[in-house]
Each structure stands twice: as structure tokens, then as C-alpha cells.
UniProtKB/TrEMBL annotation:
This protein's GO CC annotations: nucleus
Source species, domain of life: Eukaryota
A biological process from GO: ribose phosphate metabolic process
GO MF terms held by the record: ADP-ribose diphosphatase activity
Assigned keywords, A-Z: Hydrolase
Pfam families: NUDIX
Record organism: Sporothrix schenckii (strain ATCC 58251 / de Perez 2211183)
PANTHER family associated with the record: ADP-RIBOSE DIPHOSPHATASE (PTHR11839:SF26), UDP/ADP-SUGAR PYROPHOSPHATASE (PTHR11839)
Gene3D superfamilies: Nucleoside Triphosphate Pyrophosphohydrolase
PROSITE patterns registered for this protein in UniProt: NUDIX (PS51462), NUDIX_BOX (PS00893)
Protein name: Nudix hydrolase domain-containing protein
Domain Nudix hydrolase stretches: 54-191
Amino acid sequence: MSTKTQEPVITSIDDLQTSEARWLALKRIQYVDQTGKSRTWEVATRKTRGKAGVDAVAMGNVLRHPRRPPATLIVIQYRPPLDAYTVEWPAGLIDADETAEQAAVREFKEETGYECRVTSVSPPQAADPGMSNANMQLVMVDVDLAEDDSVAPEQRLEDGEHIERVIVPLSEFYDRLVEYAARDRYVVAAKLFHFAAGMQFAQTNKLT
């Protein structure tokens, strides 16, 4: 990871041909709808989908400390498509020969520095079905913290990655995301906010 010396700045935006793109492709789908009418749909697809048939994983996580209440670790990073910092759970693409579980453990270690253990894996989920066939799986993981966790483990970030780690008590999860969403040039990832909002809804309506 290189040292941050300035705020990121977009210097140009131009059209990109699929043949020139490394990660994405733009396709046109011709289909017949439920009434028998022919229709067209434009869709973005990933070029990196491997044998598992799933593009990516996101790692919902619970940090467990011997004396403190349960917490979760979120990451903050600049995303050029939004020209903003996104607040997310750790996530990443699944390599060609990986399972979702393997990708989750690897990516969590790289982005956060922490070892984790998988507790559950969701079925494949649509990421943005109106625009893309991109899909993902939510892998829930636990992290057991040591009594003295004052020094965070070293991240294993690639060149160009700048990922800030923030530990948030689960009791403050929803409120902290609302605070981030109110900041200038910050955007909370939908899947993260939906999870926190679900927790908040269940607590507020005494469903748990």
C-alpha cells in the first residue's frame, strides 16, 4: 500500500469499448416478455467470473472480545464510479478456482489483517439486477480478539488500495452508518445499510 498524500481527483471520463476493458463488458439482450412482445435490455457483465459462477463475496463479521460487547469491522475506501468514499463490509472478487468460503477468508485477511472463521454462507444474490448480472454471496465470519488488541494487525493491500478500518459496536451500528451517510463525499453501501436497518427494525419493533 502506498502512502496517501492527497484526496483522489478524477481527471477525465471517456467512453470505453468492451474490447479495451479488462474487467467489464457491455452487452445487449434480446428477449420476449410475458406478453409475447420482443424487447431489448442493456447489461454490464464481469469478465472475471470463475468456476463457482459467483463474482464476489462480502464478509459480514462479528468481532468478539473477552470483555467488550460484540462489534463489527467496516472498511472505508474511495470508489471512482461514485467519486466518493464508500462505507462497506470487507469484500472482494472470487478467484477462478476458489469457493466463496476460501475467498472470504483470504480477502478478509488481506483487507483487515485479521484471521477469521466462517459461520455461514448465503445463496448467490443479485447485486444490481436492473443494470448487471453481477452476483455475490454474503459470508458471515467471526473474529476472536485477544485481551490486548491495542495494535491492529497489518493489512496486505495491493498497490492502489487504500482501505481504512473502523470497528463499530453492534449496538451503535445503524446510528454510525447514518452519521457516515450525512458526511460530505461519503456513501454507505446498500447491502451494509440494509443489514443494519434490518437489525434496527427488529430491535425497534421488538421482533427479537
